[in-house]
Amino acid sequence: MNIEINKTEERVNVVMNGELDTLAAEMAEPQVKEIEAAATLPITIDCTALDYISSSGLRLLLRIRKAANQYGNKVTLIGVNANIMEVLSITHFNKMFEIL
Amino acid sequence: MQKRSSYLISKAFNNYLGASVLTVAATQVANMADASIVGNLIGPEGLAAVNLSKPVIQAIYSLTCLYMSSSTILAGMAIGKGDKEKANKLFSFSLLVSLVLGALIVVGGLGAFDALSDLLCKSDNLRQLTNDFLFVTLLSTIPMMLMYTFHQFVTTDGSPKLISQAVIVGNIVNIGLDIILIKYANMGIKGAAWATFFMYVVCVLMVLPHFRKKGTLRFKIPTLKDLELEKILSFGLPLFFSTALLSIQYMGNNYVASIYLGDGGLIALAICMQLFSFSMIILTGTLRTIQPVGAILKGLEDHKGMKLLVQRAYAFMGICLVVYTLAIVFFPEQISALLGAANEQTMPIIRMALPAFSLHIIMQALLYNLMPVYQFYGHKNLALFLSIGQTLLPMLCFWGMRGHWMGFFVGQIITAAVILVSTILIKSKDKKLSAIFLIPETESNAVFDSTIPTNHQALGETRSGLRDFLQSLDLSQEQVNHAVLCTEELLKNIIDHGHAQYVDVRATKEIISLHDDGKPFNPIGYVDENGLGLKIVNTLLSGNMHYDYRFNQNMVTIEL
Q: pTM for this structure?
């Protein structure tokens, strides 16, 4: 699992690559903190190369959303594949995030 | 990937073994105490009358073996498969048969009381005592059969310790009532019989709280179609024969000893038989562990688990038997003194008998415990041969060798040779079976089998290993994704909240099973802080999961 964070003046672009399972979510703690700190800007998470997500990964998305909400910003997910979409729908995350 | 270890199987084995050994040991000790009380308070005639009624008790027990032990094994296999309905029906069938057959025996026995009494007792001196004891013994049939049924099923249903407690309390009641009824109520031998009657009743009453627990067996009237009567009988026959033929073996041994060896031989044989009875603690304790645990493993088609169970059982028996035999071989004087038979005339023959007989005891235990394993895997004829051969061949060889003490061992060796040749022939037709036990070898690419410690690192490795395994099977990508995701969610709950040390993760093309040694904890029903994992699991797998708590283990089964 690999998480890249690119900050521009207008937004934070995050690229998630691989499988976001319980272990990966734990290992991603430093990157999540970095994203939370950068949540003063709107956030886009590119999920094109994200193959798998479990509830631990979802919790991580929730934390990012909570941090963004504090500043009135939105989190947008892009490139979500069918597998991940199914999990987002089951947990109603599709209603909490803007999905493009 | 972590390999499957024997950790959880060993834990299940120990959990059952302790309780089974205690149950058998308590029964043996109580029987001795019971006999000693009757002997002391009523006199040797009382003891003889009790002994004369023994064939009736033995016959009732053999009849119960015919349907009850087999129903328990089949119920265990059904539970392993997650088919609780079938287990309930088998349990109810056994209860109903115990009631109906018990009632028939009472009515028939009382109806033909005089004929039965004539058959059992030829001595006019003992007639009244035997009749008194036999009358109450017949009345005890129903509680006795109910006790056997409840005890076997409740053990398989996961409460072996409750059975030990019931047996210990029941026997204390028996001994206490013996003294009260015989000595203070002047009821004589009838008092001893009523004390036994109440022991059965107490043993039944004490196990009833088991059924208050959620998920335990329930009464459900079965139809004949549900039951596979033929299977019940074919499973029951080996145990029926091995118990029914035991009386013939005892009588035959006594006959051979009396004609070839005289009184000294009879005394030595009595000591041998006492030692044989005592070895039942090892033999039966192990058997009553293999039966319930093995049946459930067979239901899960967990052949690797079955192998681990059998290895564990034989390692335990091996050590116990070596210690026991060494004690017999090196301390024959002390053993004979303990049994009140050490004197100058008897000791030479006892010294000759015991080492040879101890070899028979070892072989008896080692061969006898093959029986349930053959039954699980459908080798009915082998099980049947074992039950008959082991009971009769040692006696016949003892006879054929004109009372030579090695006769018993030779009989066992012949039985073992027949079994060995048969298993070699069976194995030559099916190479995938293990030697002697004939447990199917699991092809490593047909099953994912792993024992993991409860940490997230192991969870991550298991998840990717499981995904690779499931992808190699003939499953759709969607099925694989759902199964992997749900397994991760359930494992995460077990690891984070189940207080377990290890989890056995097993997958085949039909099922995924997760067994852990934590406190009772249903990961399917666990709601985490946002309920996310639960939502995922319930949506993707609704109705295709079972949770069970058995052998002190949480067991989750996911059907694919």
A: 0.84
